[in-house]
Amino acid sequence: MTYHPAHISWLEVEIPGAPDSAFHLAPKTVRDVESILRYCTERDLVVQVWGGGTHSGYGDPAKPDFVMSMERMGEVETWEPDDLTIVVGAGARIDQVEAMLSERNQTLVFPERSRGASIGGVIAAGVSSLRRGRLYATRERVLEVTMITGDGRVVRSGGRVVKNVTGYDLHRLAVGAFGSLGVIVSVCLKLLPTPPGAATVDIDDIGQAGVIARPLSVLETDGRTRVYLQGTEAEVAAQVDRLGGRSVPGLDWPADPEGSWEWSIRVPPASTGDAIARLPAGWRYLALHGVGEVRAASESHEGAEDLRSWAEGLGGNLVVSQGDPALFDPWGRPPPGLDLQRRMVAEFDPRRILNPGRLPGGV
Amino acid sequence: MTLVADLRAVLGDGDVMEEPVELHLFSKDASSLMRGSATCVVFPSNASEVAEVVRIAERHQVPIVARGAGTGLAAGASPTEGGIVMVTTALKEIDLDVANRTAWVGAGVINLDLTRAAMSHGLYFAPDPSSQSACTIGGNVANNSGGPHCLSEGSTTSHVLGVEVVLAGGEIIVLGGQAPDPPGLDLKGVIVGSEGTLGIVTRALVRLLPVEPDVRTLLMGFPTVEDSARAVSDVIAAGLVPAALELMDQRMCQAVENWLQAGLPVDAAAVLLAEVVGETEGVVSQAELIAGIARANHAMSVEIAETEAHRALLWKGRKSAFGSVAQLAPDYYLHDAVVPRTRLVETMKAVYEIGDRHGLTMLNVFHAGDGNLHPLIAFDASDPELSEIVRQAGDEIVAVCLAVGGALSGEHGIGVEKRDLMPSNFSELDLDAQARLKEVFDPMGTFNPNKVLPQGSRCFDFGGARRELPEGVWV
């Protein structure tokens, strides 16, 4: 361990999976986070923020001096079932919060098979639920974010109401920012009620899904296509019939494919089928029809370059969510507005200590 | 060369106006409050011309206030600092991509015209502000506009996938696109709702939704406001998110009925208008469920529209609400605040008390489903004393909403109207962070200056590593 300051040793924890060359610690309060970040900014020490460790494969992260786990900052501050909002610490595990919410038939609409991911981590990585085609992406669920900037300022944006145009939407900027503006410490999220009826229906051909105007999702995994339905019992039963009836009750979500290399292919929605057809041989996949997102896994990066140039030609991307940045560029073509992005990050994290290397374009 | 001569050299004489009549016409938006005074009004017809105007404005060090139809209610498009008013209504293109359910839309396209163009392909644009027959997409993007049907689908920000924007220095940039989750910071996401203060959006890539196969609209009268609010809570608790859930109070219903007889029950203390959309089996069962909830909460009347004509009549009452106020007074001041849905009843009571205490005619029509209140005060703006009372009552309404955990604005924006109230909603550090964002985008202060953020917001500078730590920090 490079740094082991005695006065924060009481925050030390073991973080399984985190780089072991760094000092591991888990703050308990907002004040702890402020102090740690000021300390690191003073000394130019690199901090890797850690939620569930499930999205740590994105980008080309710099070697951290500190790994800061948010595991002790995952309390549910308030849950207002009648208001369909929850205020929760960023370190809360998605599966645990969803289990609590399901007692009142409510949901975060966060990733279904979350593998221990934290709420803050999913927001920072900007990944979304498989229900996003009907219920929108993670960014639309985030009503308020409190984050601690790299230089230790507590900044809150948004509010605890479901519709709000008060001030600039810095909380939306935090979604998918990989913690580069600040460490997300707590969020207010918009919940949705879960209707009573649900079914998962097998179909033979993606064209059949067209008989339903707005299904919850249409997913394809390695040759199997299924339509996910949700609504009143009567509504779901009638829709199952129209789709041919090969159904199971409830929502049977597939797992994301796993491998040495994991990919996120993002293309215009109508090109989802093309993206599947262009996957190199042997790649396993989970495709979200109507969204343009294909999650894939493989044992090598062979063929990825061709797929990337095709996706980028459509205005899309091929992003590495797990792999080796030395072997294959994790992001590909840099996004527009890099100068603005760099200057924004400099205003929030002047010494660039927070998760450097995670964003595209060397920001 | 003078500012006007420079502009005319680029845009031509006809698209640069400086006559007193035009300057007066474009000196305010639809808010009754704040009139500004511009040097000239320009009508660019494409992004390159917008970029030229930006460069000229920077050279002359004058601000630009972009505006669409001017239906804004927070004086966001008022040229309060002088300079150039840029009217975007000539940016008229609509480029539909039916397969991907998106469209590139010029900033000057009227909201309803977009939906009309999409409708022939079975698609529509979800945000539907009450002003949708007049307001422009550029204005919707600037204000992150809402509308009755944003309850289930979200406000404009959820439907803007990309923007073409002219930045400081006149650079034209495209942010976002049809593919989901563009990598990097979501700059497009902060431009939406920034009220023209970060740059000028010339086109937006919007999401279009498929028209739902069927719809049911319910009109329900309640003996008390509390009953109606409880019905709203019970609908949500039953697992339903209707497409719209609107509330009108008795005074508003009476005003509407006096004017156009839309069939609103005038004996009810509150009327709820609910709409459910989806497959036929779904809307039939959902409408029954909502009707049952209404009856369980003492509804005096429940009417379900099954035909388009009947539905249109029920909506006519809601959409004509603001117009009907003209019978009561020549002007009205429409508020926009938002509270947690659980605090609706107590907030409404407090709002009525404020009106009564000041002897004001107060009516309420609002988006109950998302806690977005629109108390409306009918008054005569030519009476300066009365106008001051109206303004003061407005501040009190805002204070009440903030006290229950609400926010300053749900959909109308901050503009000038609520700019100086921002410190009641945010800490100094929060405002400082927002001011940094503004500075990053607009270092010269060209774009709609002195809006949204109060003066002095940018007051903290921790300055990175070389600054002394504040006392009491334990590192």
Write the layout of secondary structure elements.
The complex is a heterodimer of chains A (363) and B (475).
Chain A: E1 23-25, H1 30-43, E2 47-50, E3 66-69, E4 76-80, E5 85-89, H2 94-102, E6 106-107, H3 119-125, H4 132-135, E7 142-149, E8 154-158, H5 170-173, E9 182-190, E10 192-193, E11 197-203, E12 217-221, E13 224-231, H6 233-242, E14 247-249, E15 261-266, H7 272-277, E16 284-288, E17 293-298, H8 304-313, E18 317-322, H9 338-348
Parallel strand pairs in A: 1-3, 2-3
Antiparallel strand pairs in A: 4-5, 5-9, 6-10, 7-8, 7-9, 11-13, 11-14, 12-13, 12-16, 15-17, 15-18, 16-17
Chain B: H1 3-11, E1 16-17, H2 20-25, E2 40-42, H3 47-60, E3 64-67, E4 84-87, E5 94-97, E6 102-106, H4 111-119, E7 123-124, H5 137-143, H6 150-153, E8 160-166, E9 172-176, H7 187-191, E10 200-207, E11 209-210, E12 214-222, H8 225-237, E13 244-249, H9 250-260, E14 270-278, H10 280-296, E15 301-305, H11 308-319, H12 321-324, E16 331-334, E17 337-338, H13 344-357, E18 361-367, E19 372-373, E20 375-379, H14 384-403, H15 422-425, H16 428-441
Helix pairs in contact in B: 1-3, 8-10, 13-14
What best-fitting shape of chain A do the alpha-carbon axes yield? globular
Task: Name the beta content range of chain B.
Answer: 15-25%
Q: Distance N terminus to C terminus of chain A? A: 27 Å
Low-confidence stretches of chain A: none
- Provide the structure class of chain A: alpha+beta
Number of helices of chain A: 9
Q: How would the global form of chain B be characterised? A: globular
Task: Compute the number of helices of chain B.
Answer: 16
How far is the first residue's CA from the last residue's CA of chain B? 58 Å
**Mean pLDDT figure of chain A:** 95
User: What percent of residues of chain A are in strands?
Assistant: 25-35%
Q: Tally of extended strands of chain A? A: 18
Say what oligomer this is.
heterodimer
Helix content of chain B: 25-40%
* Order of helical and strand elements of chain A: EHEEEEHEHHEEHEEEEEHEEHEEHEH
CATH topology of the domain at 94-210 in chain B: Uridine Diphospho-n-acetylenolpyruvylglucosamine Reductase, domain 3
Biggest beta sheet attributes of chain A: 8 strands, antiparallel
SS class of chain B: alpha+beta
Main pleated sheet of chain B: 7 strands, antiparallel
Helix content of chain A: 10-25%
Tally of extended strands of chain B? 20
